[in-house]
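call fold(seq) -> tokens
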Amino acid sequence: MPVPGKSTRWAAVAASVLLAAAALPVARADSASAADASRPGAARTPARYLNQHLDWQPCASGGLECAAMTVPRDWHHPDQGPSLTVEVSRHRATDPAKRRGVLMMAAGGPGASGLKRPAGLAAYAPGLAATYDIVGFDQRGVGSSTKVTCSDQSAVDAYFSGDKRDRSADAIQKTFAQARAFVRDCQRHSKGLLPYITTEQAVHDMDLYRSLLGADTLSYYGPSYATVLGASYATEFPHRVARMVLDSNVDFTGTWQSFMEAQPFSFQRRFEADFLPWLAKNDGVYHQGRTAAEAKETFEHLRLRLHEHPLVLDGTTITPDQLDAATSNAIYQADPGFEKLATALTVLEHPDTAPPAAKQALATALAHPMDSGFVADFFSVVCNDTPWNRSTGYWTAQSGRATRDYPLVGARSLAYSAVCAAWPRSTAPHIHITGRDLPPILMLNSTHDPATYYEGALRDHRALPGSRLVTVDGGGDHGQFQNHNACVDNLVEGYLVDGTVPPTDTTCTANPLPVPSTAGTNPH
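ret:
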């Protein structure tokens, strides 16, 4: 491959290398209906939870109101064990005369914070902000709520670094040993909380929040893992759902194991079908290869060099696993992810000639492949919600196939499955999601979404009779609403504001792929 020039190329790198109030009336004790309390297996909620007052105060940032909501540790035995705190937020409707109720948001992951998200939605969609009180929360186990704690950041960094394509017996045994150590840390540090960090418990928190807001029903928007929360809430409390948008759908028709076993394919598809051709098309800027095959070969050569000689960049040791993690994260969103990934690749290939600011920015971005707080909640939910195969032999063979066929994410799949294989056996109830007694639900998914693959969205769509699926064709971004796609935005806002339901499933064209900021210039 030709060696890139130093001037114009590094200008692009330096610019884009970073990866990565009065309260509502207090609800009465009977505001959670008798139907809710009498569902099979449900325990009556003590009055101290139903009658609590949400003391709204300005949030630390974002122009929202925040409050602390107290919830039972275990909704099935609400008088047992210490209570938990769920931090909640609110953006009041800007036009009270048009207000039609509450629009609840939730975050993905599981493990991401949802507390500040109402501010972003209100700024993006003023029509929704006028019509709804937009409310959010940090799910139990996350952020400003009662958090679950597992290993410290250094242990998490060590677990998600190295080269998981190493299929030697010693390397595989090390992964299983690290996974068991992570689980022991979770058990030791969580103080008995682990069994109660589940989707099923969280949907009861959501319904208590609805009740304390004084709302008989709520509308809902949720992307990624929040589609599981939303669909689960709709199954548990169908008569509480007014309108619901599920964006970039996790395949909730199976188990977390079946969903995650299929993910390496969809990440590889996004990488090879979308990113590599884009990178080749912009070879004049990034010099990674004139065809997708050449660009992939350049990537593999870089990865091999990192395997043989990990790169110390501004104090951060960069290994192949970190390159894979940065790549899979970047391809969630073509804009700005593709350009940031391409410019990062040039830093890693030519660190000696990279500007100090570019190296420092990339080193900071790659220092922690996974956040310790995020993975603590992530594993708590996915390992608790549904059963996992616990055989090390099964996972050794399965991860070997994934590494061979879909290496970008498949090589790291054992790091995830090994944790759930070692997790304490869960007794959490499993919600079998149905569409019974629900209004039409609006679903969104792109055809090449790397994380929530389109094939799973089709199964979800069939599982929710009466739902409408908006297919975003020709792209693979993760998260369709609030992605500056006018077709999608108009459908979602028309549905949430006016109740306009597409008469049939429909299609929107994906956003065009980004044009590099240095396109058309001579890098030499």
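The chain is about 45% helix and 10% strand.
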